Amino acid sequence: MSQLPVPDRDTVHVWVGRGAGGRPGPAGRLLRRAGATLLGRAEAEIVVGRTRGGRPLVGAAAPGGGEVTLPVSVSRAGVVVLVAARRAGPVGIDVECRRELPALALARRWYAPDELAWLAARPAGGRAVDFLRLWTAKEAVGKALGVGLRGGGLRRPVPLPEDPGADLLRPVPGRADLRVGHPAVDRELVVAVAVADPVCAGGGVEVVVSDVGLVQRAGHDVAAERSASRERTSLPVVVRGS
Question: In this structure, are strands 11-18 and 206-214 parallel, antiparallel, or unpaired?
Fold first, then answer.
């Protein structure tokens, strides 16, 4: 699945890859593809590493010296790995597989009262997905901010999700500099994308998704995997005292 971006619009590019043997595909391949596409270089010229804070970093040598870098984010679930990249500034992505879970019990522990009330009022058959939509939005916003879920990230407000498949990135309550939404990627996945400092506050942010299918691991992907893996936060599945 892919689309063509709209010229002169704030655009997030998302690459979706799948691994084999029950393991996620290597993020390094997708990170290099992101760098080649958005920095206009050959994949062999793209360097994948991480910042001092542990965030994945994609860059290439700049003409005349120095380095040009590309904001990226990585997330995994099951055999799926997603890479988001954005020329305009910080980006965050998070993915979870759709599955049954004790949505209300988890929400009582992790979410704010208004989010719990919203979830309790939702149809019972869809509460697990609605819980995951809130969770992934909080994760994606934390990644766009460069802090993950540290400092009470699960209590960080996010817009209550709209109908599934709505591609619009919406403002985060109280933060005009942040937007988050749930682009349609795969029926078995819940995906959230967030951006910091949108270029056009009233013009929206476009999300372009490219599904590259099976992604094979190569020897030089090991370092890139280590660099990207630190951005993943696991969803808690055990609830105590609730």
Answer: parallel
